[in-house]
């Protein structure tokens, strides 16, 4: 026992223990730092892979291909869907918010449509000429922004979600986003435009016919769209008769509109984005998913028991 040993030996043992403990903590911190750097590098690789549009044969009309689950871009997009859910109102205009959705990703698919890509690239080149000095950054969207190539002007290209029933998803992948169809299933508070969400749960609300809700564990699909915002207008109030973005301070027509949320002085619960030209949005991927058994989101709370 310590009481029977020389005092200096007891102290030496305690000092050795403290040294070993400090060394263990230091190594754990180094390991955590290495893991964070590895994840950051993995995500950076995924962003670059998504940002580089594929060189496609224009003889290819349209196709959808599975992306292996271990591929960086599949993991990144799966993470987006699972991590960008938000709380939504139990009912329209209700003051009660339900819990965030719990979504399980089933798979990720790449969308390849040479015709739509050609239209998108033409619009991109047009904005490069119009906005030679680049565009003002949109700070709330930085986590969804695509990386720039060397020497490229910053035209605010981002990834956003778009929700639609399965049959409509296939039509969008074939024919693109059509702003003229705005308001056919729901309201068009910011006019005749294609609407996109920053939150997967907001887009999820549009994946079913509200008059015929899907079963809780039905397979659903979200479109991941590459959206060219250019110089964008921040909207704090509705404008249902809008057919284009407003003019900027320089007299030139702006390129898109984004709606601010109520917390920051806007009129919607969650920010959303609108483009008024079909060439400014390109479907690049589909994410198949379902609601988990434990999900208690606003959509699941509205479904009949047992569905």
From TrEMBL:
Listed GO MF terms? NAD+ poly-ADP-ribosyltransferase activity; NAD+-protein mono-ADP-ribosyltransferase activity
What Gene3D superfamilies does the entry give? 3.90.228.10
Q: Which residue range or ranges hold the PARP catalytic domain? A: 154-250
Q: Please tell me one Gene Ontology term that the record gives under cellular component.
A: nucleus
Record region (Disordered): 234-254
Record-linked Pfam families: PARP (PF00644)
PANTHER family from the xrefs? POLY [ADP-RIBOSE] POLYMERASE
Output this protein's name. PARP catalytic domain-containing protein
Q: Which organism is it from?
A: Polarella glacialis
């Amino acid at each position: 026992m310590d009481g029977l040993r020389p005092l200096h030996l007891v102290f030496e043992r305690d000092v050795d223990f403290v040294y070993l403990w400090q060394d263990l903590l230091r190594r754990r911190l180094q390991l955590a730092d290495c893991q964070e750097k590895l994840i950051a590098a993995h995500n950076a690789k995924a962003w670059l892979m998504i940002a580089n549009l594929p060189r496609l044969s224009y003889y290819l009309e349209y196709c959808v291909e599975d992306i292996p689950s271990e591929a960086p871009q599949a993991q990144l997009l799966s993470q987006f869907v699972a991590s960008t859910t938000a709380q939504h109102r139990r009912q329209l205009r209700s003051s009660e918010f339900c819990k965030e959705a719990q979504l399980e990703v089933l798979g990720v698919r790449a969308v390849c449509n040479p015709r739509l890509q050609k239209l998108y690239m033409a619009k991109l080149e047009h904005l490069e000429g119009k906005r030679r000095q680049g565009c003002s950054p949109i700070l709330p969207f930085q986590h969804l922004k695509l990386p720039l190539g060397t020497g490229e002007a910053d035209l605010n290209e981002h990834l956003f979600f778009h929700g639609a029933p399965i049959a409509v998803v296939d039509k969008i992948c074939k024919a693109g986003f059509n702003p003229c169809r705005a308001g056919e299933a729901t309201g068009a508070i910011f006019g005749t435009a294609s609407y996109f969400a920053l939150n997967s749960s907001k887009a999820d609300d549009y994946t079913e016919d509200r008059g015929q809700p899907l079963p809780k564990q039905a397979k659903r699909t979200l479109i991941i769209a590459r959206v060219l915002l250019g110089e964008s207008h921040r909207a704090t109030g509705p404008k249902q008769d809008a057919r284009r973005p407003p003019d900027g301070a320089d007299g030139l027509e702006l390129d898109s509109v984004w709606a601010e949320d109520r917390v920051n002085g806007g009129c919607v619960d969650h920010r959303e984005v609108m483009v008024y030209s079909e060439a400014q949005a390109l479907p690049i991927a589909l994410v198949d998913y379902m609601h988990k058994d434990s999900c208690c989101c606003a959509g699941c709370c509205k479904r009949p028991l047992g569905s």
